[in-house]
Design a protein that fits this description.
The structure holds two protein chains of two kinds. Chain A is mostly helical. Chain A contains eleven helices and no strands. Chain A has a domain of about 180 residues. Helices cover about 85% and strands about 0% of the residues of chain A. In chain A, α6 runs parallel beside α11 and α10 packs across α11. Chain A starts with a helix and ends with a helix. The relative contact order of chain A is 0.12. In chain B, β1, α1 and β2 form a beta-alpha-beta unit. Chain B has two domains: about 200 residues, Single-stranded right-handed beta-helix, Pectin lyase-like (Pectate Lyase C-like); about 140 residues, no CATH class. Chain B has a 14-stranded parallel beta sheet with strand order 1-2-5-8-11-14-17-20-23-26-29-32-35-38, covered by helices on one side. By secondary structure, chain B is mainly beta. Classes of the chains: A mainly alpha, B mainly beta. The interface between A and B is medium-sized, with 39 and 31 residues.
Amino acid sequence: MNKVIKYVIYDIVRNRFVLSYTLLLLFTSLAFYGFGSEGNKGVLSLLNIILMVVPLVSIVFTTIQFYNSYEFLELLSAQPISRGTIFLSQFWGINLSLCLAFFIGVGIPTWIYDGTGAGATLVLCGLLLSLVFVSLALFACTLTRDRAKGIGIALGLWFYFCLLYDGLALTVLMMFSDYPLDKVSLALTALNPVDLARILILMKLDISALLGITGAIFQKFFTSEKGMIISILLLLFWIMLPLLKAYRTFLKKDL
Amino acid sequence: MLVAGSVTAKKYTVSTPAALQRALQSASDGDTLLIKSGKYPVGNLVITRRLILLGENFPVLDGGFRNEIITVKSSGVHIEGIQFENVPQTSTIDYAGVKVVESENVTVKNNRFRNCYFGVYLSATNKAKVTGNDIAGTPREEQTTGNGIHAWKCDSVFITGNRVTGHRDGIYFEFVTNSAVKYNYTSRNIRYGLHFMFSHNDLYEHNTFENNGAGVAVMYTRKVTMKHNQFISNWGASAYGLLLKDISESRMEHNRFYSNTVGIYMDGCSRSVLEKNEFSENGIALRLQANCDANTISNNNFTRNTFNMGTSGNTTYNTISGNYWDNYEGYDLNRDGIGDVPFRPVSLFSVLIERVPQAMMIFRSFTASLLERVEKIIPGITPDRLMDEKPRMKPVNLASFAANKN
């Protein structure tokens, strides 16, 4: 498996996409940390970039990479290697390169310029989000063999989680505002990995002061140790669920 | 001291509880009791003559959770350098470390209070001085914990340089007029750092109120002056840096509100002036309820707050002008330091969470900023007439806030 992962990474590094992604992240973070001399401002500005760009790049890159290496996958399947190994090597290869890019692009500048708990949470959440969207992309890829359709589904997923979902959640909350919604809002948050990541980071920034006024349950949950662990577990769950589904499909799939 | 010139003044030096009791009984007006360092288990000591009680190296008067320690019923008493310990909680009588009843010119200076139900209790006492005391309690529940410094129906009292922690309210005033509260530091009290009601014409300067249960609450009072105070880290579901409830004709000037859930909450206030204050890193910096009128809010700095302003209606009976808002995005073509476009400090999102608090879950998401943009262009939900006509381009230069702790 390690050998296959090595070849996947080699393939990825060769086409320079990951390199430019690293540089993009690096320049953005340096720019934000350079400008924002005030406290957590850098982390806050980076937050929006990370919540939009990281999922988009992860999901699009993975989809393209998967379809591009379709022939390689077919070739590997002819070898005495199990389907599971092929699939997981693809997953880990893409993940390792994207996570490394993110770590160099955001992790290191954050560590140098920020160094607080909020910064660490930002990096952790960025890494987890990369993983989530890689596995969502693989899920989209295994659904169809048609490249255009696959990319369409992947973009649709990104659109849903990053843009549409919050609007829908807001509509639901407004519609049922006469009812107690504390637990509903918690559940709604759990159903979107991007929201989970955003709230985890926001809670580490000082603005959690505000959540004192709004729904005590919400604040208590996310600032407690238990809440933190549950949120991270939920994010891991968001990685596992699409991955497992994709894995199952890939095992039986007619390549 | 005061009575040094008096020929008849005698000086008693006591070192045992029994001697202290005897001296209290035999001393007459103007005498001095020097209490040697040591531990004195005492009952209730009632002072009915004009005495000076001086402690040497903080002798401990231990109430043993049985009784009030000192009850002053005479004017001109001076109590200094004594440590008061262990005053029980009672539900009918408010026991205190030092209680002053219907007297004048009493001084309570540089004492320590530990585990006292109430620390210093002034009742119908005028011209008292409470200075440099260190008051620390062990808080239980709100109903079963007393106030650090409690004043009821007093006039012209001076509360300066005290530290109060672990009580219900740090400093509590009710019907206290023409008084001054300066250079005090109250922290970690379970309810309010400072709490007053019906206390007109009072002055509050250079105090620091930090990390109290619900911040500072002042109510039903007119002509209050608050200057150079700091309100720090008052966090919680119903915590405020400063709650102004039915306050009128008052001035809040050059105060600092840092890291509170709500910086100032103004409810039913009128004809008051908020000037040159600094609001930073609060949840909502200033909450101006619609029932406030004729207040002037000018030359304040609002920086790094989650929301700069919140309100409950669309009324505009207040003057908001010349403040600095860090999220102002206008321009200044004639370069006079005043933005050319008026600023609406109430954001859509702060109105939204007013209606649906749980909408907080989409805070700082892309959707939220999109809605905010749209609202900025065409105000539909936010109060469109509530605005600062002359927003500053740069922060007001404020004198630095020296550490008020002492």
